């Protein structure tokens, strides 16, 4: 084994015999320490023994590889919102730091050191997203493209964050009353607010909901998709996760709201006549006065209004409020988890089980009676 140090990098040399029987020497970057270079040498030799030839790590720039990954993998296998998120992560974080690096030059040590630096400037969720993008793309480089022998992200660890988790913001009863006074029945924003409050649905799920998804007799809603409208014409895509495809039951209050919404749409359709801009293929529940499907852009004003009158809240606070009210009134955590469409009950527990002060008070009162 021959390894040597050049400046602050270590290189190893490996021999290979080509198809004509000519012997060649290849020197390659092995890492920033001698032990890393030795480990890279052993991996190269193991691959040579296994296949009979030397494995040449890809010499393309990491930015070029990421573009290929986005076009050939992410485009077909990831949700549009995830692709948007990863595009932002790549352009704002990964490419400025590693874009010009050769793919073969990436090491666990370099990536781990960078992740540790990010902790001082970015939240835990942002760092986790960056790591997820790196890990997924480099896994594809190993398993699908065979550009690398091993994934340098496999042993990169998320640094510990000692801060307490943020408590989800919920609407108080007074806030709910103020919201429905400001956005009453007949206002386009009223219906998505009502759906989110009574069912815990996400905004995209509300905007994708069609009348065909409702069973007014059984009083159930079948959620089968979500609305993606960040680029161009809105389109209905698959739900966030497989568990997000679910059936939700509702009561008499939402039933009355849905009946009123149907009458409001019928009235608008009659008054507008041929100028009613209803989708010919989809009969959406959340529409504008002229029949157009609502988009997330139409709901932006609601978010701005919330920030002004109830700081820290947003449309998503309806979902937090719904879940919190169910838990505080004794509904089982597994039921709430399924109703929200969480992929795991642990997600529900981590987000909501720490904010139910009412349950804490009830527990204290029970202990007082028992002990």
From TrEMBL:
Pfam families per record: Phage_int_SAM_3 (PF14659), Phage_integrase (PF00589)
SUPFAM superfamilies in the record: DNA breaking-rejoining enzymes
UniProt keyword DNA-binding, yes or no: yes
Residue span, Core-binding (CB) domain: 60-142
GO biological process: DNA integration; DNA recombination
Gene3D superfamilies: 1.10.150.130, Intergrase catalytic core
Tyr recombinase domain: residues covered: 166-365
GO molecular function: DNA binding
Keyword Transferase: no
Keywords, comma-separated and alphabetical: DNA integration, DNA recombination, DNA-binding
InterPro entries: CB (IPR044068), DNA_brk_join_enz (IPR011010), Integrase-like_cat_sf (IPR013762), Integrase_catalytic (IPR002104), Integrase_recombinase_N (IPR010998), Integrase_SAM-like_N (IPR004107), Tyrosine_recombinase_XerCD (IPR050090)
Family indicated by similarity: Belongs to the 'phage' integrase family.
Protein name in the entry: Site-specific integrase
Organism, scientific name: Megasphaera hexanoica
